[in-house]
Protein 1
Amino acid sequence: MTDRSALQTQLEQGIAALGLTLPTEAVPRLLDYLALLQRWNATYNLTAIREPIEMVTRHLLDSLAILPYVQGDTLADLGTGPGLPGIPLAIAAPGRQVLLVDSNGKKVRFLREAIRSLKLEGVRAVQSRVEEVEGHFDCITARAFASLADMLGWGGHLLAPGGTWLAMKGKTPDDEFAGVPPTFAVQAIHALAVPGLGAAERHLVVLRHAKA
């Protein structure tokens, strides 16, 4: 069992390496979230990653790496699983309305418990297929849960005019760009230097409406 102080050191060093400045209470709240995830994971198998030190890298820092690209007052995190990247983003930049979407009941039960116990204001979790969600959001995040074509086909209706879609991927998904619907355009591709992950392991694809 890795002690909390070691996890805190790793997290703080990673945040500094990403060049981020977070609210004072963000680090302890992120560690509280990690502890809750660990506890539930033992019973409900919410994530394949079980080592806390690896969770800091692959869950927390990986999520926080996209923080500079998140925009607007409303965010929907599609296929959020146990709340990634949605919960770390909500903790790191409070004040935004965040909707966490997943079709898996046990994951949504965990999300609701995390929202309650971490007192995450403005954050909601809904159990739903992406295509059945309603509303418009300034920013949409999706962490490698489907191809770009499927993501946009299922959830494209949720992106507000002028909004930003942030698709988190491993290697650059060159074979997926041809499938992007004509109503959307790839605006940028960023290589993400996630502390603790090998180079070229994480990329962010930024999409907008084609007319934007």
Protein 2
Amino acid sequence: MAGKREENPAGSSNNLRGDVLGVLKVATAEQIQQIALPHLSYRHTDKPTPSKRKQARTASHTGALSDLHKHGLAENGGQLPGGDTLRNLTPMGLKTAARELGRPVGETGNPARGAGRTGASHPMTVNEAALALQRPKPDLAQLTGEPADVLAAAQAAVDAPAGLGTIASYATEVALPTTGTWSNSDRGGAQADIVITSPEDGVPLLFVEIDNCHESAQVLAAKIDKYMRFCQRKVKDVDGTERPMWRTRWWAPDGRHGDQPHPPLLLVFNRASSRNPHTVSAQLAELTRRHWQGTAYCCDREGSPGLPGRQ
């Protein structure tokens, strides 16, 4: 049919958004739209119903996903309770996404098949956390002619504090092996829900763990133990030097005193169940005290560092 791009049989004129799915693993068209083209969230306000407005906002990405599907790069991953269709990449799609993101194929992970069968509550929370941390800004140049109240809302989003990095700064479901290799890790290792690398924003490396308030403090403490075991693991790098395994993949500056601190871990609670996150976090702090509590060092009278506890 005339007017349709050869590589986009469905006729969508936007670029294929496999790079977003390569990061988020499984997502709805609306989540992809909010990350890839956030200005569309401020368009189509004249549509009569919320469903019509949503359909208009996501039309271009729905078309792009259809194109990905026709090329064997994407597939339907089930449905959310509200009816939204989940999309994820096939193995071929993950390879394509890795190319778009400039990453090794192994870093994009495995296909997220079957997530919709159980409601995908955790993957959806991971996506929402990534959106909240990244805070994609709308392009005001794409909103010329929109009503004044819409422009004001978009301007407020632009003026709000910036988030961390771009979609390329994020990776999800990243295995952190305590034994084995990056590509063939052990089952006893940790798995970061999100890894953020945004040195331009002062965050060279950040691990993020998401909890929908289903897990006890004891379970979360066990996960933090696994993070610590991974951070303490050392391997020989390509130059034959032994260094922390995480430093063979990611960069982080040394500490102020020449030490090499572990990367920080951000624990995000989403109150999706009856478990109280404030109670859990207090219990978790006690259970993991050995990992985060420092040692007090005093100085002698000349100002030189002394021994622990020395006055």
Protein 3
Amino acid sequence: MRSMSTDSTAPAPRIRPDTLSGERAALEQWLDFHRETLALKCQGLDDAQLRTVSVPPSDLNLLGLVRHMAEVELAWFRRVLAGEDTPWLYDDEKDEDRDIHVTDEDTWEEAYATWQEQIAHARANAAGRDLDDPGLRPTRHGKTVNLRWIYLHMIEEYARHNGHADLIRERIDGATGN
């Protein structure tokens, strides 16, 4: 399994998925590709730039997207798939979108480390499971989903937010592509 660089200043070692892999490998490779894409969109920016919102009144910012994806990794791979009773990372009774609503105290180092920790938990919880294995806890909508569904949903979630990240990054410094 590939892993992202922990050096936040170096380009992410984004590897395009193999075009001839089996289903499991393809799902894991595409998920890693999208994880690496989000890291790439954040690289080379300082904390102030990472807090820059896209277009007011939207609250979306790159730092918040990374924190949000840490929560999403936790939700699907730890809570739903593995049935863990793990508390939310950025829970706040006054602000249900606290992951996105960053403050001056929130840093890239913390967000990136937390995100990587949740990715490591996700990989560990998915290892050894069959794609047809159901999660041990229903979703917030009461549905049971299998690992295949979780992988597909995570790819969709990252792809959508990477589109947001493209626009936010372009607004910050004009960088496009990748």
